[in-house]
Amino acid sequence: MPTIVSIDDEAEFTRTIQAFFSSRGFVVHVAMTGPSGLKLVEVHRPDVVIVDLKLPGMDGDEILQSIKSQFPEIPVIVITAYNDGGKTRDRLLKLGAYSHFDKPLSSLRDLSKTIKEAIA
Ligand SMILES: [Mg+2]
User: What is the DSSP letter of 18?
Assistant: First the structure.
């Protein structure tokens, strides 16, 4: 089964991801801090990682760079709550993010589509 690691300090967000994707045939592991999320990635080698940009301990940028250096084949989708005219988005894509979504998520279907593309 395809595996997702979702790293976000908002329990509501990870609950939503877990409920949506586990009912659609994914295994979902969640973490609320950067370091614990990175550990899940190392242990489970997921097919895709969904990471919040703003996290305690280690932020999304650092996690993205760490995953990309250790596991360049794992696509990382970054979720941000910023609206800065695409600056953050461009930086993340340059750092190797597969894709970027704004928070709050407007569509789980869009995220799901992107995840399916990422692991295809
Ligand atoms: Mg956050």
Answer: H
